[in-house]
Amino acid sequence: MTDLRGLTVTRFTEALASGAATPGGGSASALSGALAAGLVAMVARNTAANPDYADRAAELDQIAADAERLREELVGLVDEDAAAFDRVMAAFRLPKDTDELKAARSEQIQAAYKAAVEPPLRVCRDALAVLELAEQIVEQGNPNAVSDAGVAALLAASALEGAALNVEINLGSIKEESFRSESAEAAEQARADGLRLRDRALATVRARLG
Hints:
Elements: H1 9-17, H2 25-48, H3 57-92, H4 99-140, H5 146-171, H6 177-209
């Protein structure tokens, strides 16, 4: 599989549009989260560098550092999500000529689908963390960059919603009920929390825009 992290924006969007199964919505969601984290870090760093905000520079620097860590994780998940789904497709290509082969194939398919749940679930968690940072930077950042902070909140919320959809579709093929319920609950809780954070952040953006 191509290393998606090494692609230019143009090449990545071409890969999305190619008709191939990967990269798909899961990778796009991870990228959306990474873009959101990048914007949070940018606003935090620019504000911290402004002498008018010297009293909160240490806190802003910490927000930038946390956002940078999340950005790196989410960039990695762009590839991890695609690789996980490639594993699912590979499992479906396994031979099924005998009962033993059918059983082994079925087992591999289930394992692959479980593995495919993990990257989007991590995107949900990371995107939620980015939203928490976005809400902080919307409130504390330079008002001249409040629109950038608002875009960060929107992108992070989109990442979370998209990743939650990818969790849901993979869970539909998994037979183990306990795994399904636990994963679905985790994704839905992150989604609900994320929507609240997004709405609060956007309300603050609009208030600061006047």
